[in-house]
Amino acid sequence: MVPRGIAARWRRAAAAPGTGRGRSAGVRRWRRTGRIMLRASLRQVSAALKEGRVAPTELCQRCLALIKNTKFLNAYITVAEETALKQAEESEERYKRGQPLGILDGIPIAVKDNFNTAGIETTCASNMLKGYISPYNATVVQKLLDQGAVLLGKTNLDEFAMGSGSTDGVFGPVRNPWSYSKQYKEKSVPKSHSEDEESNWVITGGSSGGSAAAVSSFTCFAALGSDTGGSTRNPAAHCGVVGLKPTYGLISRHGLIPLVNSMDVPGILTRSVDDAAVLLGSLAGHDPKDSTTIQDDFKPFELPNLTDVSKLSIGIPKEYHAPGLSSEILALWSKAADLFKNAGAKVVEVSLPHTPYSIVCYHVLCTAEVASNMARFDGLEYGHRSDMKDSTESMYAATRREGFNDVVRGRILSGNYFLLKQNYEKYFVKAQKVRRLIANDFVKVFRSGVDILLTPTTLSDAVPYTEFIQEDNRTRSAQDDILTQAANMAGLPAISVPTALSERGLPVGLQFIGRSFQEKQLLTVAKWFEKQVQFPVIQLEEVERHDSDVFQHQKSASFS
Amino acid sequence: SAPGGASRGHRGAATGTGGTASTANTAGTGRRHLLEHLEHLALVDFRDAEGVERLQKAIQFADQLHEVNTDGVEPMDSVLEDRCLYLREDDVTEGNCTKELLENATEKVEEYFVAPPGNIPLPKLEEQETFLQGSQ
């Protein structure tokens, strides 16, 4: 049994005054006024669609209008207004006929711009792919469309997903919606000049920052990201949303433009753990077009409400108390551990001794695979092509010089260095050996009876953009991926759950890491935790003003 | 490949470190060849001294790996190493999409992608003054 009062205490301590909102009260208010419809969870809005309280086209229009209104966030690279409305109309027809395709039918979603989408530009935020229109859909995109989801657009990222800030793409940085929240504005130093506000906005984290910002600012109900070293969980933590990195091999990578083939997974960003489970259920499973997806049957699941955590064993890996971890996050982490302990779970300190080397190992394997993967961009078949005509090689070189940014070129060069004949054993094979030690650390801990590991997701809350760009991308990534990439090295499922607001009024997330292919257990525990901490809802004046404006101007008959 | 005029400087900077004049020279030549070799393999250039510095830092960072004892440890290619790799039937399942595939190519003739003349190696460093001048 959960001792009474724990949740309430946490709520008081974690939420800024007046920001805590009970779920049931929220639902009531939503039903009454419709003002916060866009802030509903995926499951809530799906129920509203089913009951005819809102029409897919209206929902789609509202999201598109809000995307326009929050354009300054730079969350989207491409907004597919026309096709989205068409998809919404088709969905509406299905609802009218009483034959919706399932829970996702009519739900507006967004997709990171490194997944191929037929007929909609896919850029990877790079000059190399500007204007590229894929002839096919990534399997995950196809699955979402087959289930009736409405694709609003493609979200911003670091160029080719290489980065941890969503600041290094050709379309400019993504702004964290929390920069404009009442919570952050109240906590940050009072400003008299508007230019202060301009320099005060914080990054989203990355590289799936556009997807995280889109979900966090209520412009869509769920978004796809990708996660190679933490690219879904890191921005999820900074933007106060749920970020799930599934087990490697559970979800198809076909059509996800590869970064590191042996670690990439499609990621899921939602506003609640339940919603993440819905998305996982609609995406997971074998794909004949991706030989690295496992062939076991995947059964979509609904998450139970845990009432008893006493049989759980939660591991606290001591190495995650990493240099640079903010005291605030450390405090939240131990508070979370206490939460489990007080509820009767077994909480044990565990050791993953090779953790400190994981980020180094990741760096070598990542650059090596990048060097190989980026070889496909030569200007001949697709993407940017230089005007250089002297020779094939000079055309290749000029194309790549013009098409890639410094970060991508830097990783290609480092990767080629580690793969040189004389360095191959010394760096690449060595890193592969260290990778096994890291993976074995996890195996041993899970074998010892630990069910789930609890760690921080990030070292600190989001920093202002002006501060973030002081350091170069490699240094930043090494710091920012430090707590997340080990799960990719070992292929394990991991989820970041929004936990509390920092002293600066910004979101902090904690990470749960589970056993391979044990997503249900992982998400069940995450859901229990989510319920205890009652993370506050973002108070975005833009959205509130917009929501009520829209409602004033186009009162919908179908919406009571 | 690529270095235009700007890259001259970074090689100078990268070669001027440490040792007596003669060892520095040998090391410098070796290093210069290495950087050139990498640029040819990668088909991207360092662009400037900062690019070379970035590589140096990346190597230093990677060198921490050598603190780990990996005697007797097998390298790990994939976390799915214990599972059978899925192989589909060797049947044609899709095709006839020449038009779609050619759609994204900048230069093509009939059903072919068009490349500039092949078998011409990139110019040597000394000959690179004018190389890539047409590119930004």
TrEMBL record, chain A:
InterPro entries: Amidase, Amidase_dom, AS_sf, GatA
Main location: mitochondrion
GO biological process, one term: glutaminyl-tRNAGln biosynthesis via transamidation
Group of enzyme by EC: ligase
SUPFAM superfamilies: Amidase signature (AS) enzymes
Keywords carried by this UniProt record: ATP-binding, Ligase, Mitochondrion, Nucleotide-binding, Protein biosynthesis
One Pfam family in the UniProt entry: Amidase
Active site (record annotation): 112 (charge relay system), 207 (charge relay system), 231 (acyl-ester intermediate)
Domain Amidase: 62-523
Catalytic activity: L-glutamyl-tRNA(Gln) + L-glutamine + ATP + H2O = L-glutaminyl-tRNA(Gln) + L-glutamate + ADP + phosphate + H(+)
Any single Gene Ontology cellular-component annotation: mitochondrion
Assigned EC number: 6.3.5.7
Annotated localization: Mitochondrion
GO MF, one annotated term: ATP binding
Keyword field contains Transferase: no
NCBIfam families: gatA
Annotated family: Belongs to the amidase family. GatA subfamily.
Subunit relationships: Subunit of the heterotrimeric GatCAB amidotransferase (AdT) complex, composed of A (QRSL1), B (GATB) and C (GATC) subunits.
Biological role stated in the UniProt entry: Allows the formation of correctly charged Gln-tRNA(Gln) through the transamidation of misacylated Glu-tRNA(Gln) in the mitochondria. The reaction takes place in the presence of glutamine and ATP through an activated gamma-phospho-Glu-tRNA(Gln).
HAMAP family noted in UniProt: GatA
Name the record gives this protein: Glutamyl-tRNA(Gln) amidotransferase subunit A, mitochondrial
Organism annotation: Geospiza parvula (Small tree-finch)
Gene name in the database record: QRSL1
TrEMBL record, chain B:
MF term (GO), any: ATP binding
UniProt KW Protein biosynthesis keyword: yes
Location of region: Disordered: 1-31
NCBIfam families: gatC
Compartment list: Mitochondrion
EC numbers for this chain: 6.3.5.-
Protein name per its UniProtKB record: Glutamyl-tRNA(Gln) amidotransferase subunit C, mitochondrial
Biological role stated in the UniProt entry: Allows the formation of correctly charged Gln-tRNA(Gln) through the transamidation of misacylated Glu-tRNA(Gln) in the mitochondria. The reaction takes place in the presence of glutamine and ATP through an activated gamma-phospho-Glu-tRNA(Gln).
InterPro entries: Asp/Glu-ADT_sf_sub_c, GatC
Species in which this protein is naturally found: Geospiza parvula (Small tree-finch)
Gene Ontology biological process terms from the UniProt entry: glutaminyl-tRNAGln biosynthesis via transamidation; mitochondrial translation; regulation of translational fidelity
Assembly with partners or alone: Subunit of the heterotrimeric GatCAB amidotransferase (AdT) complex, composed of A (QRSL1), B (GATB) and C (GATC) subunits.
Family statement drawn from the similarity comment of this UniProt entry: Belongs to the GatC family.
Keyword set includes Cytoplasm: no
Biased composition (Low complexity): 20-29
Keyword entries, A-Z: ATP-binding, Ligase, Mitochondrion, Nucleotide-binding, Protein biosynthesis
Annotated Gene Ontology cellular component terms: glutamyl-tRNA(Gln) amidotransferase complex; mitochondrion
Domain of life: Eukaryota
